[in-house]
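[AMINO ACID CHAIN]
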Amino acid sequence: MAHHAADLAHKNLLNVFGERDPETRATVIREVYAENVTFADPEEVVVGWDALDSKAQRLLDEAPGFVFRPVGEVRIVDNLTYLAWAFGPEGVPPVATGADISIVENGRITHLYTMLDPAPGSEKPA
């Protein structure tokens, strides 16, 4: 189970949210996620394959030339995965960093949450 969950976490990041070819991305979406997958990030919550596909396309359209890179290993507890990532142009410091947290049931991601790290200098003093 752990190996499969780690594989799903990487496919989510690289082969869905990092995939610029719509046909390839659509195929992977149907392999990786439950049909009624719920995705939440700080901007919105979307449900289902088509909505997730549209979300990934919008993100990629807004950031031409940007790529996702995993940061560290996938961490797994029971059916929950955590994968930190960086996003930006290849070969330069990332523009954004964060993590994807997913819940895996029956071999597919059923819930996906994206947490964004604060931009440098935006943290409020304690």
